[in-house]
Design a protein that fits this description.
mainly beta, ten-stranded antiparallel β-sheet, 132 residues, 43% strand
Length: 132
């Protein structure tokens, strides 16, 4: 099984999945095992300097979507946390504070699982599973 690199595609409003540098899918739902949250510093600097977004951040991992669909993400479990990234405010992906607040954000670089979802008319959502 190859590692995938998944990022949010602003034009299509879905995820783009790359393997070996080639886009292989545009899923609305992805589950990645052994997830790594990656930010390219040069691309991030370009976004900040030009004020235009480019592909420089995403999640790498083993795509196990077909093996586990659907995954239940429980808002009542501290093991599942919402993850966000804003190139103008964050240097890395961050865990969103309790109850969805933006306060108390903590950088995150990896997780046992990442679940990435898009729905029409809603912003993309990413959850990280980190058992305690």
């Amino acid at each position: 099984m190859k590692r995938s690199y998944v990022y949010f595609n602003l034009k299509r409003r879905v995820w783009s999945e790359r393997q070996a540098g080639k886009v292989v899918a545009h899923p609305e739902y992805v589950v990645l095992k052994d997830a790594r949250f990656l930010v390219g510093k040069a691309g991030q600097a370009r976004v900040r300097a030009e004020g235009r977004k480019n592909v420089h951040a995403g999640v790498s991992g083993l795509n196990i979507t077909d093996a586990v669909y659907p995954v239940r993400v429980s808002a009542y479990s501290d093991d599942w946390r919402t993850v966000t990234y804003n190139p103008y405010r964050h240097d890395s992906f961050v865990l969103v504070g309790g109850n969805g607040s933006q306060h108390g954000q903590k950088p995150v670089s990896s997780a046992t699982y990442a679940v990435m979802v898009t729905e029409a008319g809603k912003p993309p959502v990413v959850w990280a599973y980190q058992p305690r």
